[in-house]
Specification:
about 450 residues, alpha/beta, Anaerobic Ribonucleotide-triphosphate Reductase Large Chain, 12 helices, UPF0210, DUF711 family protein
Length: about 450
């Protein structure tokens, strides 16, 4: 029976994490299938199980009165299961010189199989995990993004990882051009970069494209991500002052999150196989709905002077993040901070276009605020002719913040083909609004 209680936010994602291996894509010759059955690779069974977990959790949460927007699957780094090879040669070599045992055709076959299985299970979001090799970032990440709108991936960048940052920058540039010779809407205008990011210190984040499964952990695990911009506004209006954020968030967030946690824990108790509940990513996450802007909600606080990004904003972001990561009795995971995706938050997008220079949001302002919260630089349009050097330096800044403070951060930017700084964007996506091209 579905409960009619009105919940103050949506569940953006239920994300199941699974570890894949090379062997999962090969038929086990040592086993004999039941008479009449055709032997299939183990990946069939793993995705069946992932789908079963997701649908049961989805049903249980819907029956508890929650709107569930998406269900998703995330894997361990794709170099552990998608590519059969070890890239050899020097990282400074051009990509075409890397020796590969596995061919592009073999990679495509695996991706096509996964895409077909996802279709069978009506699952539209699948993270292939991060690249941990700069050559994989350059060569394979664009293939993943191009092959299906369902697929996301990322590049793992450590603090000071110059070669990794350059590879991620080159990958972003390549992805931005994938739509030049295709009618695929998910690639046009650089939109493929919606499903790729450079990420640092990220683990068990349920949000895409940074999501990554732990390797060799429990057979399956899962986490919950929220969409709660309207609820954030309600809480911050109630708090009025930074000094009240902790008490308001601990009281109200705890009250609203406990029922979700109880549903998840009950599910783990009831199943007969190994599965781990990782927790809830408690991040404040905007929506495009009226009143769904997180930036607008923060402007309600007495200490935030003027537009978001001005004085007081950093203090507010720090207080919010500290509170979200310490909600009593709630197991947290992922970013559990403040999400500021420019093209997914109408107020941020507006501040990107304002002619009032003191109010205009910039990449440096966003990077500064990221020093005390998540998620990093997210859905920011930049000039199409951005240089690899400039873009890799931005990625290094993000990784430096993440490494210095041991916090998960990511960098997801959209080079706009033919776009120059200050020009308006014209993205056609149900997941984003438009702003202007930011100067890098």
């Amino acid at each position: 029976m579905i409960m009619t209680i009105k919940r103050p936010f949506r569940i953006r994602t239920i994300t199941v994490f699974v570890t894949l291996t090379h062997d999962d894509f090969h038929v086990d010759e040592s086993t004999t299938p039941p008479v009449g059955d055709t032997p299939t690779p183990k990946v069939y069974d793993k995705l069946d199980e992932c789908s079963s977990i997701l649908r049961k959790l989805e049903t249980n949460l819907i029956n508890s009165g929650y709107e569930v927007q998406t269900v998703r699957i995330s894997t361990n780094p794709f170099g552990e299961w998608l590519t059969e090879d070890e890239c050899v040669g020097n990282e400074s070599d051009p990509p075409h010189k890397s020796a590969r045992v596995d061919t592009d055709a073999a990679i495509r076959r695996k991706l096509q199989l996964l895409n077909r299985l996802l279709d069978d299970h009506r699952i539209n979001f699948f993270s292939c995990g991060p690249s941990t090799n700069p050559l994989h970032t350059i060569e394979i990440c664009p293939q993943i993004i191009e092959s299906s709108v369902k697929f996301s991936c990322s590049a793992k960048i450590d603090c000071g990882d110059i070669s990794g940052a350059r590879a991620a920058a080159a990958c972003i540039q390549t992805i931005s051009t994938l739509g030049n010779n295709t009618n695929a809407n998910h690639l046009k205008g650089g939109l493929g970069n919606f499903r790729f990011c450079a990420a640092s210190c990220v683990d068990t984040v349920p949000f895409f494209p940074a999501a990554k499964s732990p390797t060799n952990e429990a057979s399956y695990s899962f986490a919950i991500g929220l969409e709660n911009g309207g609820f954030a506004r309600e809480l911050l209006l109630g708090a009025k002052s930074i000094s009240n954020i902790k008490s308001v968030f601990h009281s109200e967030m705890r009250k609203e999150l406990l029922p979700i946690q109880e549903v998840c824990l009950a599910f783990v108790r009831d199943v007969k196989y190994s599965i781990e509940y990782l927790g809830i990513d408690t991040s404040l996450n905007p929506s495009l709905d009226e009143g769904g802007s997180v930036a607008d909600a923060i402007e309600c606080l007495d200490e935030v002077r003027g537009a978001f990004g001005g004085t007081g904003s950093l203090a507010a972001a720090a207080a919010i993040t500290t509170s979200l990561q310490s909600i009593p009795d709630i197991k947290t995971t992922g970013y559990s901070g403040l999400m500021l995706p420019v093209l997914e938050d109408r107020r941020l997008a507006e501040l990107g276009t304002t002619t009032i220079s003191t109010d205009r949001i910039t990449i440096q302002k966003l990077l500064c605020i990221s020093s005390v919260c998540g998620v990093g630089i997210d859905t920011v349009p930049i000039p199409g002719d951005v240089s690899t050097e400039s873009l890799s330096s931005l990625i290094l800044d993000m990784a430096a913040l993440a490494g210095r403070w041991n916090k998960p951060l990511s960098c997801r930017v959209f080079p706009v083909p033919g776009g120059n700084a200050g020009e308006e964007t014209t993205f056609d996506s149900p997941y984003m609004c438009n702003s202007r091209v930011f100067d890098l």
